[in-house]
Amino acid sequence: YALWIQGIPFDSNLLNLQAKGTEAVAYEKKLSSSDLSPRSAVLLVKQQEEAKKIVEALNKLPTVKKVSWLGEVLPKTWTPEREALAQKLKSYSIPKTSKLDPSLLQKNLKQLENLLNQSLESLLSAPNSQELLSLLEKNLSELEFIQKNLNQVSDENLAKFNQAFITVYRDHLLKAAHSPLAKKSDIAPQLLRQVESPDGTLALQAYPSVNIWEREALESFTKQLQSISPNFTGPPMMFYEILNLVRSSYFLAGLLSAAAIFILFLINFRSLKYSLLAMAPLVFGVFSLFGLMNLMGLSFNTANLIALPMILGIGADNGVHLLQRFRQEGERTVDFLLGSTGKALLLTYLDTLTSFLGMALARHQGLASLGQIVLIGITCSTIMGLIFLPPVLLRLSKKN
Asked: In CATH terms, is domain 2-10+240-399 a member of 1.20.1640.10?
């Protein structure tokens, strides 16, 4: 079993720790696969010229989907696409509309009413929204009046209205297409604060083109950004550092726990032989845990790595209690295994099993994996303690 420890994967995807089917996880996955990824890396830059160079370098990275910053919001010139659209609107001739379908118009008005009602509901809890609320309520009342009286409007008047509406709409588009370039003063203060601080420091937000919930993709994204500047911050950088710390720290904690337990055994037994015997069920139990995890397809993650020190602490009881009682009996009998000590160890195991069973059945996948690994680990340690140690102690008692 111990040879299979290298085959146990480490699941670094934090979304896999959440309960299955939750809306938060579903929307997080949708956002991560869109241009609106909520997980971007941020770099603060003092000078605009320096920011331009960094943005150009970032846009060349394969793991960067887009870079958002103030220079993107305030372009120096119109894009060729914008110019082409303006020219097309100028030459656009308004076609004469045919007879309108009243039922289709009623359907469209109903859809508009639903959208206005949704906007009204979202604004009810928003601060400083009285003006917008009043406007929406007025629009809804006017819309209701139109729906009630639509059947009384002649087809000719509907066609005239449609023609006038298209004309006004085209004129608005033309005006927007030839509007002056946006200035910093045109941006609302609450929006400007997201891209520029009061002292002029610019925030560059780099959005990933890869799924940063996967470790390899996260590592590539992080290292490529750090090759541009080591000062990037944000959720991706934080996730990367946390994953590295968790992996190294908990495995180190397991080794330190095992070393501390062995030192305590040496102090207690004052014998290397008995200390090694007390550690044997623990070591074999942990190796069996690794083998069973491989067979069952279980993986380590940031939630269940803490199980290793816990299993070592709980599993150490079996060997030390058996050996302590064996020495109290003068190292001449193992009858106590079927009596008080054996029953006490079994009862302790069942009590611990019951405690972690609820966690193993939890809907939260992270807690469930922690409970499952602890259950397997203490079960392996208990079985090894009750199977491995008794024959050894029986042999020692016969020698004595």
From this structure: yes
